[in-house]
Write a structure and sequence with these properties.
By secondary structure, the chain is mainly beta. It has two helices and eight strands.
């Protein structure tokens, strides 16, 4: 049995050696291996703008943090309503599940420096709504430069409950 395996290994090595040799220079015989594509990391703080099922616009702050290959997402909306969801990054799409009084999901596509999303939730009869996350600079986070300070408050997204105590938070 061992002799048969050694013979097979030697035969494969010999065939592999002759198959690899050709009249072409080594650089043309085998195409170069492409470098692995690095996934975009959506972690950060964003200005959130979207449209509610009733057609009114809303604004808020979204924090995204990487947690062992997944993402923890926290929305802070009008009246300091906070909701936390968990997401998975697949290529250039971040899919996040959350509970805002009813089960809901949002899928963001990473487009240049923004996350352009579509979301839906139970009770909307299959309707899909838009939401865009724009990265915030540190200067935008100062209270005197709050995005809502210069503009009248917009209606908020449907209420999302506060996470249960003991849950991981950002």
């Amino acid at each position: 049995m061992v002799r048969m395996l050694l013979t097979a290994a030697a035969l494969m090595a010999a065939l592999g050696g002759t198959a690899a040799s050709s009249d072409k220079p080594p650089s043309q015989a085998q195409p170069p291996t492409p470098a692995p594509i690095k996934k975009a990391d959506p972690s950060g703080i964003y200005l959130c703008e979207g449209v509610n099922p009733d057609g009114h616009k809303y604004r808020g702050i979204v924090q995204i943090a990487a947690v062992r290959g997944t993402y923890l997402v926290r929305w802070t909306l009008a009246d300091d309503v906070e909701v936390t969801g968990v997401g998975i990054l697949n290529d250039d799409r971040l899919s996040v599940s959350y509970f805002g009084g009813t089960p809901a999901v949002v899928v963001y596509k990473i487009v240049a420096d923004k996350l352009v999303g579509e979301w839906t939730m139970g009770g909307t009869e299959g309707a899909v709504y838009a939401e865009t996350l724009t990265p915030m600079s540190e200067g935008m986070l100062k209270p005197s430069q709050s995005p809502d300070a210069a503009q009248p408050p917009l209606n908020r997204r449907p209420r999302r409950p506060t996470p249960l105590p003991g849950n991981t938070s950002i």
